[in-house]
Amino acid sequence: MSAGIAVVGALLLISLFLNLVPGDPIDVMLGEQASEVDREALRRAVGMDQAWYAQLWTFSRDFATGELRTSLPPFQRKVLPAIGEALPKTLQLTVASLLIAVGIAIPLGVAAAARKGTAVDSAAMGVAVAGVAVPRFWLGPMLIIVFALWLDWLPVSGAESWSHLVLPSVTLGTALAAFLSRMTRAAMLETLREDFVTVAKAKGLSPHAVLWKHAFRNALLPILTVLGLEFGTLLGGAIVTEKVFAWPGMGTLLLTAIEKRDYNTVRATVMVFTLCYVLVNTLTDVAYTLVDPRVRRRS
């Protein structure tokens, strides 16, 4: 039910915002010097002479049936095949960024919690604060200058090989790694104060077993919650990152459609982003039941 409300709400909001955008898309297509006859003919051709709710219904029907076409000439070009080409690229970038973030944040957060108040804790949290403070639109160009131009280790842009994925995924995953490491530390500190951890230590288990097998496993629920919520943030951040690195994903497709006033492509792209976010949150709920038996019993 909530997933359906989220999808409908996103569709209504993006349609509202598109109607509030100043300027006439017909002027972008034909130019301001076009005759009124040509302007009205094109307005009817793209369906912009209809009321907003009629345009919304037409879009929803065509999107559901796969017949949605661009709002710009040539109108024969379908939108969903373009999304089908761009979506795997964005998911590839998002998953790579997520893996980088998890690979950095989990060891960093666990180490900081295990050595609370020490230099390790201070250094880990200092790195986390720096990661949150550095904006992506600055970090991306800096990585290009250092690793692509000065050192010539990695390509500047494009998506021809796996080496092209390194810089954008690091740019996108840095902020999440910083935030997730702080969340991991907080969850671990709370779990390490529980009685079952004291019992595990009293049984003579090794510090490694107490930390990872008992404490970390019980601290996973808040970490999974953050990962599920931050997936949407990664998709949103991918829009800027893809633009910086000329990555041919959904972000590039969306920005191009906005520049050209291709409203159907804008609506469809936002809808796919919303569906991906809803799907990931559903998978997060499923992961809860796999990680915590108490959730399984309650459900």
Give the gist of this structure.
Helices cover 79% and strands 0% of the residues.
How would you describe this protein?
This protein is mainly α and 299 residues long. The protein has 2 domains: 2-65, no CATH class; 89-260, Orthogonal Bundle (MetI-like fold), CATH 1.10.3720. The protein contains 14 helices and no strands. It has helices spanning 2-20, 25-30, 36-45, 52-65, 79-114, 119-133, 136-150, 163-192, 195-202, 207-218, 220-245, 250-260, 263-291, 293-298. The longest helix has 36 residues, at 79-114. The two termini are 17 Å apart. The model has no long low-confidence stretch (mean pLDDT 84).
Task: Report the β-strand fraction as a percent range.
Answer: under 5%
Number of strands: 0
Radius of gyration, Cα only, in angstroms?
24 Å
Question: What's the level 1 CATH class of the largest domain?
Answer: Mainly Alpha
Helix content bin: over 70%
The CATH topology assignment of the largest domain is: MetI-like fold
End-to-end C-alpha gap: 17 Å
Give the overall shape.
Answer: elongated
The residue-averaged pLDDT reads: 84
The CATH architecture of the largest domain comes to Orthogonal Bundle
Give the CATH superfamily of the largest domain.
MetI-like
Main sheet summary: none
Number of helices: 14
- The total domain count is 2
Q: Assign the structural class, choosing from mainly alpha, mainly beta, alpha/beta, alpha+beta, or little secondary structure.
A: mainly alpha
Q: What is the H/E order?
A: HHHHHHHHHHHHHH
Instruction: Return residue spans where pLDDT drops below 50 for at least 5 consecutive residues.
Output: none
